[in-house]
Amino acid sequence: MGTVTLGVSIAVPEPYGSFLQGKRAGFGDPAAHGIPTHITLLPPTEADAGALPAIEAHLAEVAAAFRPFPLRLEGTDTFRPLSPVVYVKVAEGEAGCTALQAAIRAASGPCARELAFPYHPHVTVAHGIADEAMDRAQSGLADFRASWTIGGFGLYQQGDDAVWRLEREYPFRQTTALPRQADLSRPPAPTS
């Protein structure tokens, strides 16, 4: 059946997702339009295509064990010099993201894998581009803020064209409380 390259992530909702993707492209990151704006839960992972039903069942079980939780993005930071990445920081919801990715990568499940670096939830806005452009990304988005309630995550597959596409969404178990709406008090500036 062959192999597929999968990833699991939390999508950054609109209008923030498109805003950050446009900024990433504007900083000169050639991967910007092939990667939806997200917080990684399972990094790119090769899997046997025949394992997809077991992976999907596992992800559904994980999602059913979680409830929606608040997430807030605020400001920027970098992994440089260790890794050429500038990112928007997760200021609230880090513990929830960490628990979620640990459940997804559980040693007993079909998505078990080691990570190259300790898990640190973030939203990449520049990767592997010139230092000057990385500096612009870090300073240009330093005042960025967004908040919403995470209600689930998605399974993505990378195509032969290197574009990541959503294959399936996995909603969390819902509560009777109304989810917090996206904070639009500071909407992102339009991209030029």
Walk me through this protein's architecture.
The protein is of the alpha+beta class and 192 residues long. The protein contains four helices and eight strands, in the order E-H-E-H-E-E-H-E-H-E-E-E. A four-stranded antiparallel sheet has the order 2-1-7-8, covered by helices on one side. The longest helix has 13 residues, at 52-64.
Main sheet specs: 4 strands, antiparallel
- Approximately how much helix is present in the residues? 10-25%
Oligomer status: single chain
Q: Which structural class do the helices and strands define?
A: alpha+beta
Poorly predicted segments: 176-192
**What is the number of E strands?**
8
Rounded to an integer in angstroms, the radius of gyration calculated over CA atoms is 17 Å
Number of DSSP helical runs: 4
Give the overall shape, derived from the CA principal axes.
globular
List SSEs in N-to-C order. Answer: EHEHEEHEHEEE
